[in-house]
Specification:
alpha/beta; 11 helices; Isopropylmalate Dehydrogenase
């Protein structure tokens, strides 16, 4: 079984490379193939011992965030991302691909090179956010499809539910629709129509949800279009950063607060860890024929290790098979 990792395009390729090396040591039963500047990769890899299940494929070019995604995928054939996608496409034993590069390019490559699953209108980008009860909530879509249709959101719900069943073991994950109010008549044309589709489905749809309740732990999947989902994601990240910054300022403002912090240090460290996206891995693109994970551009080595674990759980949980079954059942209704 092979996993392909695009090492370039991220803020720190060294973090991607080190994370891949750590994952290869942790999972000797899988092969990890790195694409990118071979000299850079070899210089970064640990020199103490060879990692037999880690291979490097050289790529001369890099797709950046400044490139137009569709043009870059078609023109930059020797880029690390396109090479990784092409190998994934031809590999029947592949577990999937990981990239911390351009979101648009990863989505375009997944759609154009790998292709959509039968019956899927649009792939969706999943993001995981920690919740108050110690678990996490799945946001779908979180940035791939800015202008969506109700039928797309219906499929996002199916794919998100399948993913959460595999990740959490829950037989029937709860699904909420992001809206401006909880009443069934609230929202715009998109959300009102989507509400009717979800309510008529066999999914565990629990109704509308306001953004302030996303992290309560009361919901497993939050369904929305890519625009609203990305705003929810970035807004949540910004609120957490502001809280931690203000907390630090208040602690440093007085001696008594500094002393109190010493007694709370372990709890604060646990809180910071729970809110760190690196500990959750990347965001899977669901709906393509083979799994693709988009890691954060600023991912550290832990995020890459966790992304590898995500791909393994997607395989073990038969997520693609469950998605295909769910799409087929919905189309047959």
């Amino acid at each position: 079984m092979n996993i392909y990792i695009d090492c370039m395009g991220a803020d720190s390729p060294a973090e991607i490379i080190n994370g891949a090396a750590a994952a290869a040591k942790e999972h000797p039963e899988i092969n990890i193939v790195l694409t990118g500047d071979q000299s850079l990769i070899n210089a970064t890899l640990p020199a103490s011992s060879a990692i037999c299940n880690l291979k490097v494929v050289h790529a001369e070019d890099v797709i950046t965030n400044d490139d137009t995604p569709t043009t870059a995928i078609k023109v930059k054939k020797d880029s690390s991302l396109v090479k990784a996608f092409n190998m994934l496409k031809e590999d029947d034993n592949a577990l999937g691909l990981i990239s911390a590069g351009s979101t648009g390019a990863v989505l375009t490559g997944a759609t154009l090179i790998i292709g959509r699953m039968e019956g899927v209108y649009r792939p969706t980008l999943i993001s995981q956010l920690p919740t108050a009860n110690g678990g996490f909530v799945c946001i779908t879509d979180s940035g791939a499809n800015m202008d969506s249709h109700p039928e797309w959101l219906m499929q996002f719900a199916i794919m998100g539910s399948s993913y959460m069943r595999a990740m959490t073991g829950k037989a029937n994950p709860s699904i909420a629709l992001l809206n401006v109010g909880t009443e069934d008549h609230k929202g715009n044309t998109l959300t009102r129509t989507t509400y009717q589709l979800l309510a008529a489905s066999k999914l565990n749809f629990v109704g509308n949800m306001e953004a302030r309740d996303a992290l309560t732990g009361n919901y497993d999947v939050v369904v929305c279009d890519g625009y609203d989902g990305n705003v929810l994601l970035k807004g949540s990240e910004g609120a957490v950063k502001m809280f931690m910054k203000k907390f630090k300022q208040n602690v440093m403002a007085s001696l008594s607060a500094k002393i109190g912090y010493l007694f709370m240090k372990k709890a604060i460290k646990q809180l910071r860890s729970a809110m760190d996206y690196n500990n959750y891995g990347g965001g899977p693109f669901l709906g393509t024929k083979k799994p693709v994970i988009k890691a954060h551009g600023a991912s550290n080595s832990m995020a890459i290790r966790q992304s590898v674990n995500q791909l393994l759980r997607i395989k073990e949980g038969k997520v693609l098979e469950m998605i295909q079954q769910g799409i087929a059942e919905n189309e047959a209704r």
